[in-house]
């Protein structure tokens, strides 16, 4: 019988699990649970007996000095509880963080499920990370899988079809299915050519997907900046080796080609929904919100970048997409159009006035020429030479001194 002391009644509890070892490439999954524990100041209420599940020659204890006293820390799995209170929705998270056990996996899973039952856990989410052929320059792929067909349909997840060796993540998920506890596994793909921990970009991607799944906004702290710094460091290392740079480029091309349809639909929709949640819960411009690529999305109303700045990232390129115009923007554009239309009417009236003046001036000039022609004919009478001279004078007057037509010169 599991006895829980000091644990209050929980609100819509969800259990989040991660285990160091085979299912934790780059320590991405265990770091994600550790981040939740730090940000929400988790309180440990239970730990599993290390003697039952660990081979201490594989996972050795550590010794440290605390106040001059030597203290041994044994490898184990600890359970803590945090309240995710973001102002929009409060729910409790039971965090399970430890090391993949060396033995008695079925007993290990049964003990964890015992705690889940006593705490009234509604769903178990297990985080994992694996090595894959994915470029570090693109958003980290995160897949959500479950063995429950109904849960897969309701949460838009994939039904697991994996066959082969498995770790504690797969065993615990199967144990949940047999116990009737809804369970989901989230897997982040870590580039195999940079598999050493830490990998803050993969951790960030797992937290973003977890946020979508449990509908709770997760504070990211310094994780966004750490993700940027990590990618910049890998960029520099890749640039120093031409073969690595070419290999990364080939992975980028393969990834962009394979995910082009998703980039134009489902991924952008998820990013937009996440933006709306963060905008509602974080009205000021501070921080923006994190993308799967480790960047900050800006440009929301009231934030940095102005109403026309990009805030959606194009998954295939990493570039920003323009913000969809809001009703306020539409009204502003209509006002600008009215102002521009008024200026255009004034300019048109001015042009019409100038054309009328030019036409009047041309008519006056022509009238004057006709008068001079008449005077020439009266003074010379019927003399043919006078008439010829008069005609030549009229031609010169109509054409101007340079041989151009008068209306053309006026224009």
Automatic annotation (TrEMBL):
Residues 332-344 have a biased composition (Acidic residues). Residues 345-411 have a biased composition (Basic and acidic residues). This is PAC2 family protein. InterPro entries: Proteasome_assmbl_chaperone_2, PSMG2_sf. Pfam families: PAC2. Residues 278-411 are annotated as: Disordered. Gene3D superfamilies: PAC-like subunit.
């Amino acid at each position: 019988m599991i006895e829980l002391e000091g644990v209050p009644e929980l609100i819509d509890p969800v259990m989040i699990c991660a285990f160091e070892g085979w299912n934790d490439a780059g320590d991405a999954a265990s770091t994600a649970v550790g981040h939740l524990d730090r940000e929400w100041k988790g309180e440990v209420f239970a730990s599993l007996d290390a003697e039952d599940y660990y081979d201490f020659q594989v996972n050795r204890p550590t010794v440290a000095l605390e106040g001059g006293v030597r203290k041994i820390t044994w490898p184990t799995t600890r359970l803590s509880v945090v309240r995710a209170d973001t102002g929009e929705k409060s729910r409790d998270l039971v965090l399970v963080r430890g090391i993949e056990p060396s033995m008695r996996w079925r007993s290990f899973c049964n003990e964890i499920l015992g705690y889940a039952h006593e705490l009234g856990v509604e769903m178990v989410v297990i985080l994992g990370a694996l090595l894959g052929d994915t470029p570090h320059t693109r958003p980290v792929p995160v897949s959500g899988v479950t063995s429950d067909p109904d849960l897969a349909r309701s949460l838009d997840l994939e039904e697991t079809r994996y066959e082969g060796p498995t770790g504690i993540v797969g065993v615990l998920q199967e144990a949940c299915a047999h116990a009737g506890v809804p369970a989901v596994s989230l897997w982040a793909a870590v580039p195999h050519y940079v598999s050493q921990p830490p990998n803050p970009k993969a951790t960030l991607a797992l937290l973003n997907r977890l946020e979508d799944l449990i509908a709770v906004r997760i504070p990211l702290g310094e994780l966004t900046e750490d993700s940027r710094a990590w990618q910049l460091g890998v960029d520099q290392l890749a640039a120093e080796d031409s073969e690595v740079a070419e290999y990364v480029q080939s992975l980028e091309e393969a990834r962009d080609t394979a995910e082009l349809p998703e980039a134009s639909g489902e991924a952008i929709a998820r990013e937009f929904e996440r933006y709306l949640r963060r905008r509602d819960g974080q009205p000021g411009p501070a921080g923006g919100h994190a993308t799967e690529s480790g960047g900050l999305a800006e440009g929301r109303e009231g934030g940095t970048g102005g109403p026309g700045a990009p805030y959606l990232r194009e998954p295939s390129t990493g570039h920003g997409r323009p913000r969809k115009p809001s009703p306020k923007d539409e009204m502003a554009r209509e006002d600008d159009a009215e102002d521009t239309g008024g200026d255009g009417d004034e300019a048109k009236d001015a042009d019409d006035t100038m054309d009328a003046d030019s036409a009047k001036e041309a008519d006056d000039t022509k009238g004057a020429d006709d008068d001079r022609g008449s005077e020439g004919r009266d003074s010379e009478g019927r003399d043919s030479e006078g008439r010829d001279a008069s005609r030549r004078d009229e031609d010169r007057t109509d054409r101007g001194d340079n041989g151009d037509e008068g209306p053309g010169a006026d224009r």
